[in-house]
Amino acid sequence: MSDLLYLKRIEIFPIKSLDGVIRTECSITSGGILENDRIFAITDQEGKVVNGKRTERVHQLRSTFSTDIDEVRLLEAGQTTPQQFSLKDTSLVNRWLSDFFGFQVTLKREPEKGFPDDLIAFGPTITSEPSLRAVREWYPELTLESVRRRFRTNLELDGGMAFCEDSLYGAPGELKPFQIGHVKFSGHNPCQRCVVPTRDPDQGTPVSEFQKKFMQLRKENLPAWANATRFNHFYRFAVNTSIAASESGKKLRAGDLVKI
């Protein structure tokens, strides 16, 4: 890969499964995540996470956050007035969310390690704008922003060809080192996707045969230099990473160059 890749967009998701927040810069925590990314999770009485994989009801919920992520405003689809809650004392938001989902839930907080899906590749997920635009061309009925919100990736690169992020992982069992700005990463694997990208991010309605079409076109458009052995199936998109504790306190900034 000779293209000059750079970090174009940073997005964190303070409450796992809910809406994101755009940042121009973001620090790395001691747990190897982006500061304030997925540091809250909605859990049921058994401690299991309530997310879009589990219930389409999540798509009916909009959220916006204060700059310091100390408050959240929640709005149910069809309503016009958001409800504002403190994230320091979650008793009121727990009650509201329990009413919304129809069963008792609790908002849990973990500020350093967050609540990643992958406990090994727990770092930010990475894609690129050219890749998102390529996927958008596969589904003419979708907008670029709809595609972006379906895949919910933390870091978005630019400056390369579609699927340039496939250069950020290596062979099976290999952790591929790369750097964005001053932050060192390990690239693990192309991310296996769930049911969430098949659904409209606002309403939860599915696109017919989304996964089947995606797998076919992903395979056809896999770059010749990409490591095809990492694809036991082609419903994979974006790259899973990890960040060592030694990078704690360093910052990622929009515009940072990628070094492989």
Summed up, what is this model?
The protein has 260 residues and is an alpha+beta fold. It has four helices and 15 strands.
Write down the secondary-structure element order. EEEEEEEHEEHHEEEHEEE
Poorly predicted regions are: none
The number of distinct helices, counting runs of at least 4 residues, comes to: 4
- Indicate the CATH class of the largest domain: Mainly Beta
How large is the share of residues in beta strands?
25-35%
Number of domains: 2
Number of strands: 15
The assembly state of the depicted protein chains is single chain
Q: Major beta sheet, specifics? A: 4 strands, mixed
Distance between the termini: 9 Å
**Helical residues, percent:** 10-25%
CATH architecture of the largest domain: Beta Barrel
- Largest sheet strand order: 2-1-10-9
Integer-rounded radius of gyration: 18 Å
Structural class: alpha+beta
What is the typical, i.e. mean, pLDDT?
96
CATH fold type of the largest domain? M1 Pyruvate Kinase, Domain 3
Form type: globular
